[in-house]
């Protein structure tokens, strides 16, 4: 039988995709490099040619998931129109309706994926903050926002919202979660120097 030789970039993508599936389904700790090799029918030398360790492979998986999320978010942002507040609303609401979002979150909330979950959230914040910072800069030019630190404000907003509403990290009771959700619009308005009520649309995301 003729041995199939894949392009190195394609082979690397295959390994990352297989590892991502296995990490989500079995949990990072319970997945071995041998599992990934078996999934793809590749030799030990092949997988270790691309990744020095399982930890190295995990970082590649996190980067891959974040890059995919960034591409989706960037496409949504490019389609948005209007002033900064209008684009903010379109961007946030459309981004919350991604079809595979719930499936991925369900997997990440498994105890076995706690470490992967935290790494992914942190990476998402780092990658996505510049997109939000661009909207904040637009809002400042339009006199809708007042801040000389758009990127840092974006990072604080994303970190606060993503971590404090994640029930995989904080097992809030419904009332506890709702109390925090209701505080987000005014807190964002305060951070950005925006008019009261201008970010009330954030409450739609959590319905």
Structure notes:
- With 207 residues, the protein is mainly alpha-helical.
- The chain has a single domain (61-205), classed as Orthogonal Bundle (Tetracycline Repressor, domain 2).
- Helix content is 71%, strand content 0%.
- The protein has ten helices and no strands.
- Helix 4 (54-79) packs across helix 5, helix 4 (54-79) runs parallel beside helix 7 and helix 5 runs antiparallel to helix 7.
- It is elongated and about 60 Å long.
- The mean pLDDT is 88.
Q: Which CATH architecture?
A: Orthogonal Bundle
Number of strands: 0
Written as H for each helix and E for each strand, in order along the chain, the element string is: HHHHHHHHHH
Q: Per the principal axes of the C-alpha atoms, what is the gross shape?
A: elongated
% residues in beta strands = under 5%
Structural class comes to: mainly alpha
Provide a count of the helices: 10
Kindly identify the CATH topology. Answer: Tetracycline Repressor, domain 2
Whole-number average pLDDT?
Answer: 88
Portion in helices: over 70%
What would CATH call the homologous superfamily? Tetracycline Repressor, domain 2
Instruction: Note the gap between the termini.
Output: 56 Å
Q: Main beta sheet, described?
A: none
CATH classification class: Mainly Alpha
User: What integer value in Å does the Rg equal?
Assistant: 20 Å
Number of domains: 1
Low-confidence stretches: none
